[in-house]
Design goal:
The chain contains 15 helices and 14 strands. The protein has 399 residues and is an alpha/beta fold. It starts with a strand and ends with a helix. The structure holds adenosine-5'-diphosphate. Adenosine-5'-diphosphate is lined by residues 210-212, 239, 283-285, 288, 330-332, 335-336.
């Protein structure tokens, strides 16, 4: 079976053509600068080939067409024609409370996702445009939506309710939703496989630490608590996002600097996090390099990020009344041995201890726990595309 996985952003579109059963990736790539000019990077893992093209992409429709042309091209294609694609799986960020699992896309589903636009104004419109653009060029190919929020729909009300008047939940759907669900789902299942134990009997804390970061408590395979909230702004400090702050700061900044609400929200979304604290960069590689050269604010940004992540791991464990394993994934979690070590440094009291030699790795699935640790610490590269492809195949086969 050949499944095309599409992940549409506001000005970008990532794709992967893969077999969900053998996990073979036939081709993968990225359209960037959609709406500006347009650039396609197309890779074929089997022979390591990489192609780059400048292609006009005024809208996502041209980007999808460029992907189709690349996949079927005589020189660098991997399929003869589009009929070889059995189905398309779309990543969708926000499904509100409507979908607790992946679904076949119909007009009713698109309508429901449109209703969620106010909940994710930066993400959902692009996801819907991606779906529509694919439907246009592949009108007869089944499409499936896989939602970032779905995995967290198992959270109990005590975890998702904010302490504000209840009618804002019942009338306006203001609640904690949580994101990165596909990633938390994938790494928790891999963790159970690595530990050789059924997921149903495990308490796992998964740490997706990338440009956006979130921690999730997974009890018996189900998400029961997560750090992101109504939007992906909540929880941990991130590359440019502030994470959880005292909301009174918003009003105070508006008053003292004569800023509009849009300006303050822009600061909290795009100029805060480790970029705002360090003044160096939103990328941890730059911040770690600056800290190594003695930049105190870069060091503070790292200390703050690690400290808050440490506390989140402990509170996620408390939400489950225990912990069997902690998992690190995504850009920082997979690559930075220093940050992993600093995050778990104060968690020895809970039985979390890592072996420095085993921790000195990046991007591989491995157990980095110390010999005397009572909680396993695992490094697991995430693979959201595989989950999307497998869910798509399952629904298309009617399983
Ligand atoms: P996204 O959330 O956009 O999917 P990723 O999961 O790819 O992001 O994570 C990207 C981030 O990972 C980068 O911004 C950078 O901060 C961090 N990162 C990547 N490689 C390293 C590394 N070797 N050391 C430290 N941080 C890294």
């Amino acid at each position: 079976m050949k499944i095309l996985v599409i992940n549409t952003g506001s000005s970008s579109l990532k794709y992967q053509l893969m077999d969900p059963d053998t996990q073979e990736v036939f081709a993968q790539g990225l359209c960037e600068r959609i709406g500006i000019d347009g650039r396609l990077t197309h890779k074929i893992p089997a022979n390591g080939a990489k192609y780059e093209f400048d292609i006009a992409m005024p809208t996502h429709a041209e980007a999808i067409q460029a992907v189709m042309d690349a996949l079927t091209s005589a020189e660098h294609g991997v399929i003869k024609n589009m009929d070889e694609i059995d189905a398309v799986g779309h990543r969708v960020v926000h499904a509100g409370e409507t979908f607790a699992c992946s679904v076949m896309i119909s007009q009713a589903v698109i309508d429901a996702l449109e209703e969620c636009i106010p909940l994710a104004p930066l993400h959902n419109p692009a996801n819907i445009v991606g779906i529509r653009a694919c439907q246009k060029v592949m009108p007869n190919t089944p499409m499936v939506g896989v939602f970032d929020t779905a995995f967290h729909q198992t959270m109990p009300p005590r975890a998702f309710i904010y302490a504000i008047p209840y009618e804002y939940y019942t009338k306006n759907h203001v609640r904690r939703y949580g994101f990165h669900g596909t990633s938390h789902y994938y790494v928790s299942r891999r963790a159970a496989d690595m530990l050789g134990r059924p997921i149903e009997e495990l308490k796992i804390v998964t740490c997706h630490l990338g440009n956006g970061s979130s921690v999730c408590a997974i009890d018996g395979g189900k998400s029961v608590e997560t750090s992101m909230g109504f939007t992906p702004l909540d929880g941990l400090p991130m590359g440019t996002r502030c994470g959880a702050i005292d909301v009174s700061i918003i009003d105070y900044l508006m008053q003292t600097h004569h800023l509009s609400i849009d300006e303050v929200m822009d600061i909290l979304n795009k100029k805060s996090g480790v970029l705002g604290v360090s003044g160096v960069s939103s990328d941890f590689r730059d911040i770690e390099a600056a800290a190594a050269q003695g930049n105190e604010r870069a060091k503070l940004a790292i200390d703050m990020f690690c400290y808050k992540t440490t506390k989140r791991i402990a509170s996620a464990s408390a939400a489950m009344g225990g912990i069997d394993a902690v998992v690190f994934t995504a850009g920082i979690g997979e690559n930075s041995a220093e940050l992993r070590a600093q995050i778990v440094e104060n968690l020895g009291f809970m039985g979390i201890k890592i072996d420095p030699a085993k921790n000195n790795v990046r991007g591989v699935e491995t157990d980095i726990s110390a010999a005397d640790a009572t909680v396993r610490t695992l490094l697991i590269p995430t693979n959201e595309e595989l989950v999307i492809a497998q869910d798509t195949a399952r629904l298309v086969r009617g399983e």
